[in-house]
Automatic annotation (TrEMBL):
GO molecular function terms attached to this record: FMN binding
Secretion signal span: none
InterPro entries (UniProt xref): Flavodoxin/NO_synth (IPR008254), Flavoprotein-like_sf (IPR029039)
Organism: Geodermatophilus aquaeductus
Domain Flavodoxin-like: 4-168
Lineage: Bacteria, Bacillati, Actinomycetota, Actinomycetes, Geodermatophilales
Record protein name field: Flavodoxin
Length: 178
């Protein structure tokens, strides 16, 4: 039985809520675990068949130390280590030798829906996944927050659950090896 792993970065908790909702959706068909990138394992075990990663858009891209510091200074975010997040994890994690399939998501402000048409954080997440040898099997999904510190726009957790169910069906219907 394959397992799914959802690895997220979240400064204000919205991405964490989305990651858990995705895992709930995945759990309709496969067992799914959720972990913050700063605490994620340095090696993905062979039992993981699907890796889902996601985090916030910061300055049109994935969070980096300078934007995390900005979030702490400007918005009072509590970030224990501004050098540890999804980008850093995807830069060092070791993948199973026979690869795995993956999907990416991000969270972003809802003020500029047009911006959602330009892939930012999730685009980089997909590039890093591909560089690691993972096969991205679904288009990235974007989830919206009302303001910088949240909350999520109404209905986004339901949409994340539905996306999780769709991903689970997708991996169940096709071979998992890249
Ligand atoms: C430093 C910083 C830069 C941000 N830049 C962007 C941006 O370029 N585009 C955008 O849509 N949202 C931007 N946001 C809003 C974040 O996307 C939002 O805070 C995040 O999605 C909330 O998720 P979280 O609660 O999981 O951290 C920015 C937020 C911060 C703190």
């Amino acid at each position: 039985m394959i397992r799914a792993l959802v690895v997220y970065e979240s400064v204000f908790g919205d991405g964490r809520a989305i990651a858990h909702a995705i895992a709930e959706g995945l759990s309709s068909s496969i067992s799914a675990d959720v972990v913050a990138a700063a605490e994620a394992p340095s090696e993905i075990g062979p039992d993981v068949g699907l890796l889902v990663v996601g985090g916030p858009n910061h300055a049109f891209g994935m969070p980096r130390p300078s934007t995390r510091e900005g979030a702490a200074k400007q918005y009072g975010a509590d970030i224990p280590d501004t050098g540890a997040g999804l980008h850093e994890w995807l830069g060092t994690v070791r993948m199973p030798a026979d690869g795995l399939v993956a999907a990416a998501f991000d969270t972003r402000g809802s003020g500029h829906r047009m911006l959602a048409k330009m892939d930012h954080a999730s685009r980089t997440e997909e590039k890093l996944l591909t560089r690691l040898g993972a096969r991205v099997v679904a288009p990235a999904e974007h989830f919206f927050v009302v303001d910088t510190k949240g909350p999520l726009v109404d209905g986004e957790e339901d949409r994340a659950r539905a996306w999780g169910r769709t991903l689970a069906e997708l991996v169940a219907s096709r071979p998992l090896t890249p």
